[in-house]
Give the backbone structure.
Amino acid sequence: MKSFFKKNNKFTAGFTLVETLIAISIFSMSLVALMSILGGGISDTNYAKQKIIASYLAQEGIESIRNMRDSYVLYPANGNWNSFRTQLTSCNQGDNKECGFDNSVLSTNSNFIFKCPGDQCKLYIDNGKYHTYDISSANTDSGFVRKIWMDTTGLGQDEVKTYSKVEWTQGSGTYSIIFSENLFNWVEL
């Protein structure tokens, strides 16, 4: 009976070289697939982060234009609704139909809109704050460009459609997000 259970074949005692190579290749392919998924996840997370920041910056552009409209309409020293439209109309002339704004003068001046020739609408970051101008050597390029403009096509005299576009480059592509809002002359004369 003992001879029945005794293994006489010396090749059944362990793994063969072929079995070991197959096991290592399966393990390697699994590891490569896992690393690929992790790399894609990190890339997707970075894209989501950039898109959220771009959304906030685009919304800030719309809110700044709304603030500008309110400043023109509420404070007669700044002008009125027509002065507001004229200020934004300058963004719709010439080859470059987009403007930016200088958020460093928002509290002191209602005329903070300027044309964006070249890369002047680049946003720089300093201590978590985004600025249009590189005002100190501590600022770094944020990688975002914000442009604003308006459209009055097919709209009445008391309405403008404003746009805020934020662009950024990530990886091998350029991405953008555009917010828009219709603004009205809400003060009756």
